[in-house]
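Hi R.,

Here's the chain you asked about this morning:
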Amino acid sequence: MTTKVEISRDELLGKEFETSNCGKCFIIDYKGYHNVTVMFYEPFCIVRCHMSQLRSGALNNPMYPTYCGKGCIGVGKYNSKKDKLAYKAWTGVLTRTLNSNWKNVNPCYENVGVCEEWLCFQNFAEWCYHQKSFNFKDEKGKNYHLDKDILVKGNKTYSPETCVFVPIRVNNLFVKNNKKRGDLPVGVHYNSKVGKLIALISDENGKRKHLGCFNSPDEAFLAYKYAKEKRIKEVAEKWKDLIDCRAYEALMNYEVEITD
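And the predicted structure, written out as tokens:
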């Protein structure tokens, strides 16, 4: 059995250690084997730890950008184990905005970014716990999704001012298949069997509803626009008491445009 060898405080003050993943740090205070205070050089951070963590190199700097090269856990009360739901949402945001491989597979996120504040998990988690619908589940027991462009249409940046948690059904209202529809307006498709333009809208269960055949893209789009805005308002009323009031207002005032 090995025993811990106590070293004098004077011997350890200023002693430098190399960590496995976060660079160098040095001891600035020593009150015993299990009570050591160190300072990291870059990014600057002061951390309390055990001597065993220093000797093994296992000590982490919470300010070091370990996620996607930019995201850090930060110093504070939130962590990945205790705050799993917030952590999952945070890593999801960073993946969609900073992971180039993910963006290559999902090109619609090519120009989507995240605000500087949310690069630190502490800030993101603090925001989450102040949201009405964080931790809410839908009728199927699924957690609400974090949406970035209901409050601000066309928004490209995840931030406290532009994001809100909503049920999956609400989030799916705005899913578009730009690749499949080609150059036609949203909600409009060409039916080669009848040689006509048709307008389609998805119902609550994702099943497509036929809105009619039309001679021009504009006519087909107007039919879709009327049905889609009506559908969005119906969903907003259904979830009114279970979503953020900002989301409800945005849904009630949402306008479908031909450029969507």
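The chain has a mean pLDDT of 89.

Let me know if you need anything else.
M.
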